[in-house]
Specification:
The protein is of the alpha/beta class and 414 residues long. It folds into four domains: 80 residues, no CATH class; 60 residues, no CATH class; 186 residues, Rossmann fold, CATH 3.40.50; 29 residues, no CATH class. The chain has 16 helices and 13 strands. It has a five-stranded parallel sheet.
C-alpha cells in the first residue's frame, strides 16, 4: 500500500526515494500509530514547502478515501474551457433575447435616471407591484426591487436580475474576519516577501556565518561577530472592496485579511473598506458607518508615501461609477469627483508603493472596461499565492525591472 501511495504522489509532487525510506523508518520505529499521525508525518516528509500542502491534501484524500477530488490544474482547465465558450444570443430564452440586445446597445445617462426617480416620488401615492412604470416590486419598472429591468435602480428589498444601476438604500455588509487560521499559512509566507529590514538596538545578535568566517581567517582563534538586530520596517495599508460582486470572493479576502492582520511582520498595519470604488470617504468597517471613517484628504495626510498600499477588489463596476460625477451606485451619495480621480490620487501619493489584488483571474483578451482602466493605472495581480508573491516583489523592489499591467496597457485610451 505504501509503495503504491509513493508512486501516486510521485505523479503529482517531486518526492524522492530517500523521503520514502524516511517514512518507512518512522513506521518501523513505531512513531506512527494512526492515520492522523501518518498524515502529518508523511506530509512533513514529502512536502518541501507550504505551497505543496494543497496538492498533497487532495492526493491523500483521493488515495485513502477515494474522494476523487479534482487537482488545481484540472479545475483551472475546466474554467478556461467554460470561459472561452462564446455567448450565443440564439441560445438565450426568446423572452429575454430582445431585452439583452437592447441592454448591450443602450446609451445610458445616470443623471436622467436620478431625475426620473425623483419625479415619480413626487407623483406616486400608493403601492405598486408587477408593473412597468411606477416604483414597486417585480415587473419591468426601472425603480424598486426584485424586477427584471436590466438598467434599473434597486430601492430596498432584494435584487431580481442583479443588474441594478444604483441602490437607494444603505446596504449592510460584513467585516472581513480576523480570526481565520485554516489555509492562511501559504498567504503569510507570500506576504513575508514584503520586507525592508533595518538595524535596531545594540550589537547583541551573534552572526554565525561571519563568526565562522572570521575564526577561519584567524587560524582557529575564535572571534565572535555581533550585529544589531534587524526588524521589518514595512508599514502596510490594506483597502478592501466589500459586498456586491465581491460577496462570492469573501472567503478569499477573509483569508488574506486574517493572514495580514495576525502577522507580527509589519511595523504598522491599517485597513479600510470601500464599495466598488474609492470615493471621498474610507470606512473602518464594512457597515460604512460615517462615524467610523476617514475623509480621503485626511487619509493622504495621515499616511505618508512610505506606506505600502494593497487594494483588493474585482474592479468590475458600471463605467459611470469610475468615470462620472454622481456615478456612485448609492443614490443618496453625491460624489463630486469621479472614482478615477481618487485612484489617481492614491497612485500619485504613494508612487510605486501601490498594487491591486483581483480575485477574478486577469485575462487581457477579455475583461471589464473599468478593470482595464484601473489596471492601466495601478499594477494588478491575481489574488492567488503566485499573484500575492509577485505583488509583494513589486512593492519590495519599487517596481524596478518588473513588467506589470500598467506597462501592458500603456497605450490604452479611455
Amino acid at each position: 500500500m505504501f509503495v503504491d501511495f509513493f508512486y501516486y504522489l510521485k505523479e503529482r509532487l517531486p518526492v524522492s526515494l530517500t523521503e520514502y525510506m524516511t517514512l518507512m523508518e518512522a513506521l518501523d520505529k513505531g512513531l506512527i500509530s494512526n492515520m492522523i499521525q501518518f498524515y502529518y508525518i508523511s506530509r512533513s516528509i514529502f512536502c518541501k514547502n507550504e505551497h505543496q500542502f494543497d496538492v498533497y491534501d487532495i492526493a491523500f484524500a483521493n488515495f485513502f478515501k477515494d474522494a476523487q477530488l479534482k487537482f488545481p490544474d484540472d479545475i483551472k482547465q475546466q474554467l478556461w474551457d467554460w470561459l472561452e465558450k462564446p455567448l450565443d444570443l440564439d441560445e438565450i430564452d426568446p423572452r429575454y433575447r430582445e431585452e439583452l440586445q437592447e441592454f448591450l446597445h443602450m446609451n445610458f445617462n445616470i443623471e436622467e435616471l436620478q431625475q426620473h426617480f425623483e419625479e415619480l416620488m413626487q407623483k406616486q401615492d400608493e403601492e405598486h407591484n408587477f408593473g412597468s412604470q411606477w416604483i414597486g416590486t417585480g415587473g419591468d419598472a426601472q425603480f424598486g426591487h426584485s424586477g427584471r429591468n436590466p438598467m434599473g435602480m434597486r430601492i430596498g428589498g432584494g435584487s431580481g436580475m442583479r443588474m441594478a444601476v444604483q441602490i437607494a438604500q444603505k446596504r449592510i455588509f460584513r467585516d472581513y474576519r480576523k480570526d481565520i487560521v485554516l489555509d492562511t499559512r501559504q498567504i503569510k509566507v507570500a506576504l513575508k516577501r514584503l520586507r525592508k529590514l533595518e538595524e535596531i538596538g545594540k550589537l547583541d545578535e551573534l552572526n554565525i556565518d561571519k563568526t565562522i568566517n572570521k575564526t577561519a581567517k584567524n587560524g582557529g582563534d575564535i572571534e565572535l561577530v555581533f550585529e544589531k538586530r534587524r526588524k521589518n520596517n514595512v508599514k502596510l495599508l490594506l483597502l478592501m472592496d466589500v459586498g456586491g460582486s465581491m460577496t462570492p470572493y469573501a472567503h478569499l479576502v477573509n483569508k488574506l485579511f486574517s493572514a495580514a492582520n495576525n502577522m507580527s511582520h509589519w511595523k504598522k498595519f491599517k485597513y479600510y473598506y470601500f464599495h466598488n470604488c474609492v470615493y471621498e470617504t474610507l470606512y473602518e468597517n464594512a457597515q460604512r458607518n460615517p462615524d467610523e471613517a476617514i475623509d480621503f484628504d485626511e487619509f493622504l495626510k495621515k499616511y505618508d508615501k512610505k506606506y505600502k498600499v494593497v487594494i483588493v477588489g474585482d474592479a468590475a463596476m458600471a463605467s459611470w461609477e469610475l468615470t462620472e460625477r454622481y456615478g456612485s451606485i448609492y443614490y443618496y451619495h453625491r460624489n463630486e469627483m469621479p472614482g478615477i480621480y481618487y485612484l489617481r490620487e492614491i497612485e500619485n501619493h504613494f508612487k510605486k508603493n501601490t498594487v491591486w489584488l483581483n480575485p477574478e483571474l486577469i485575462r487581457f483578451e477579455w475583461q471589464p472596461w473599468t478593470r482595464k482602466i484601473i489596471s492601466s493605472l495601478i499594477p494588478m495581480y491575481n489574488l492567488t499565492i503566485e499573484g500575492i508573491e509577485e505583488a509583494m516583489d513589486y512593492l519590495r523592489r519599487g517596481g524596478k525591472r518588473m513588467y506589470t499591467t500598467v506597462d501592458h496597457l500603456k497605450n490604452f485610451n479611455y
